[in-house]
Amino acid sequence: MPRASAAALRTVPPTDADATEDRAPEPARAVVSVSDLSLTYETADGPVYALSGVDLAIAAGEFVSFIGPSGCGKTTLLRCVADLEQPTGGELWVNGVSAEAARLRRDYGFVFQAPALYPWRTIERNVALPLEIFGVPKAERRERVRRYLDLVHLGGFAKKFPWQLSGGMQSRASIARALCFDPQLLLMDEPFGALDEIVRDHLNEQLLSLWRETGKTVLFVTHSIPEAVYLSSRVVVMSPRPGRIIDVVDCSRLGRQRPLEIRESPEFLAIAHRVREGLRAGHAYDE
Amino acid sequence: MSRQVNRTIILSVATVAGGLGLSALAHSPDIAGQAGSGFWLGTLLLWLAATLAARDLAGLAAQQRKPSGLLALAVPLLVGFLLVVLWELITVGAGVPAVLMPPPSMVAARFGGALPVLAADFVQTFVKSALPGYAIGCAAGFGTAVLADRVPFLRRGLLPVANFASALPIIGIAPIMVMWFGFDWPSKAAVVAVMTFFPMLVQTGAGLAATGRIERDLMRTYAAGYLTTLVCLRLPQALPFIFTALKINATLALIGAIVAEFFGTPIVGMGFRISIEAARLSLDMVWAEIALAALAGSAFYGAIALAERAATGWHPSMRAAR
Question: Which ranges form a coiled coil (chain B) (predicted)?
Fold first, then answer.
C-alpha cells in the first residue's frame, strides 16, 4: 500500500502531462493501476470484505464503467482511487503516484451520487468553487465558468440558485464543476442514478461527446447495464462479498461514435448479454 | 371581489372610528366607573366589527399573489388596536383601580411625560448593558463552538462545564456579578454575556455538525484544508443555526439586563425604574417601561430577522420569502 509520506511522493515528477497527450491505450501508460487491492472494514459483527484481490490497469483516454449489485464495492473502489477511502492491502497508483499525492495534486475531478451543489452559492459560483480554492485569478475564473456552463448547456442559468433548477440541470452543473479545472481524470459515482430515463439518455449522449472531444480518462460507476455498455470502452463487472472483479468486457468494437439507437444493434445486445451473464454468475456465487 | 373590498374598508373604518369614539365617551364623567348596559353593548358590537374586519383583511391578504407589506401588516395592527381599545374601555368603563391596571391612555400620557427619564433608562439598560453583553456573549459562544469543534479535548471537557454554567439561575449570578464588576452597567453586561453564551455555543456547534458527507468529501477532493472547508462550507451551512441563536439571544439579552438591575444598580435603568415605581404603586410608569422594553425588544429582534433573510435566503425555511 503506497501510503508513504506525501512529502516524499511530491518529489516524483508529474507524469500526467505526457501520459495524456498521446492517448496510447498500452497499459504501460496506466492512469490508474490497481494490484491485489483489498479493503476490510472491522465491524462489531466481524470483518466486512468490501474489496478483495482487485487487479486493474486503466490507460489514458479510456472510459471504464464499473457495474455490479449494491454492496459489490464499486463505489468503494472509486473512492479508494480518489483517496476518500483507505485500502487495507494491495497497491494503488494514480498517475504514477499514490492516491493521496494525486488528490493533493488535484489530479482528478469527482462527480458524486448527488449533485452536492452548495445552496448558498449561485450556479456560476458553485462551478467556480474549485477555481476559488485553487487560487485561479478572477478573470480566468469567470471565463472558465462561462465556457464550462456553455459546455453543459447551462449558459442561461448562471445566476440561478441550485434549488431553482431541475435534477438533471443540477447534475450537469456538478459535472461542469468537476470539469472546470480541467482534470485529465474524471471519477463519476452514479451521477445520473436519481434521474429519469429520458434525461439520463440525454446526459449520457452529452457525456459521451464530451469524452470524445476532450480525451479524458473516465471511471464511471453505475448499476445500469445499457448505460455502462453505451458509454464505455471497457465494462468491469463486479460481485459482492467479497467485492471483486469477475469479468472485464471490451466494448471498443462499438466504435467511438455512438448514436442512442446503437443500443438496439446486435453487437450492443451481445455485449450487454455478456455483462448480464457476468452479473448473474456473481450472484450465483453468492448463494 | 370589489364588494368584499368595500365591506372590508367599511368594517375597518367602523372599527377604528368606533373604538376612538367609545374611548372618548368612556372618559365622560357620566360613564367612567359606572358604565351602563348601552356602553357594554357598544363595546361588544365593536369587538364583533373588528373580528369581521380582521377576518376579511386576512382573506384579502391570502388572495394576493405577491403579499404586500401593507396588507400583511394591517391584520396585526387592527388586532392590536382592538386589544388596546378593549383594555381602555374595560378599565375606564368599569372603574378598575389604576394600581391594578392603569388604562392605556394613562400609560401613554405617562410615557409622553417621562420621555427624558425613559431615554436615560433606555441608554443605561439597552445600549450600555444589553448590547455589549449580547455582543460579548454571542462572540464568545461562537468562538468556543469553533474551538471545541476543532479540538476534541475541548469538546469533551468544555461542553459539560458550559452546560453546567448555563443552568445557573440568573438571580444567583446577578449578585455575584455586582460583586465582581460593580453597580454600574458592566455587571449587567456580564450577566447578559453569561445568558447569551450558551445558546450561541449549542447552536453553532449543531450548525458546524450539519454538513453532509458528500459536501465534505467534495472539499477533500479539492485538497482543501481545515480553514478553507470552514469558510467555504461549514460556516455557511451553520449560518441558519447561528441566526436562530442570535434571535433567541436578542430577547434574552433585554430580559437579562432588566432583571439584573433588581440586584443593585445606580439610580437609572429600566429594571431599577420598574422595581422602585412598583414599590411606589405608580403602575403607569411600570407599564410605560414595559412598553419601552417591548418596543426595543421587537425592534432588535426584527433587525436580526431582516439580516437573517438577507444572509440565508437560500435556506428552505426562507425561500418562500424570495
Answer: none
